[in-house]
From TrEMBL:
An example Gene Ontology biological process: base-excision repair, AP site formation via deaminated base removal
Name of the encoding gene: ung
Location of the active site: 65
Protein family: Belongs to the uracil-DNA glycosylase (UDG) superfamily. UNG family.
NCBIfam families: PRK05254.1-1, PRK05254.1-2, PRK05254.1-4, PRK05254.1-5, ung
Gene source species: Christiangramia lutea
Record flagged with keyword DNA damage: yes
Designated name of the protein: Uracil-DNA glycosylase
GO CC terms of this entry: cytoplasm
Predominant place of localization: cytoplasm
Amino acid sequence: MNVRIHPSWKSELDTEFEKDYFKELIGFVKQEYSEHKCFPPGSEIFAAFDHSVFQDTRVVILGQDPYHGIDQANGLCFSVRDGITFPPSLINIFKEIQNDLGKPLPSTGNLERWADQGVLLLNATLTVRAHQAGSHQNKGWEKFTDQVIKLISEKKENVVFMLWGGYAKKKAKLIDASKHLILTSGHPSPLSANRGYWFGNSHFSKANDYLVSKGKKQIDW
């Protein structure tokens, strides 16, 4: 499994990689990938940590599980590969950006363009078995990604955390609200969005306003 991860994250997470739970987790993941079709491809499991350099990370968006359909997941939460039909949640994200910032809907759902600007697109669980949502939950990934959130909170300042939906909102307790901006709303899934819990949250303009106020470059959403 040829994993790609930026050196800036590797040095920050080295001690985590050495812990027993993480070694057990990787053993589980390797076995799953050898016996079943799993996503994302092995080389992209840590894609969120390869595109968004630790020092440059300015925004964190938290998802729950990778997409489990063929050729969808690319290691970034809510993102799909070029040429793949936009999943419903991603359509609603783009619609909110259109409403909030007046930007047209993009031609691709590949969010690498955000990640390369310092948006950490982090799923709580980094792998999944094909067509089996949640199949790799409670195996250790959540422990690891909770540590990532704590690390960012402790070692960085003025980061925007976007927590969408009940699961993500629970992660607020890991973040120091005195030195970061925490934005919460309903999930962009149709079930939540159609009940009025998503549209109009203006998270993308709020994030940019905050970053500019802290002397940081805004994100081109």
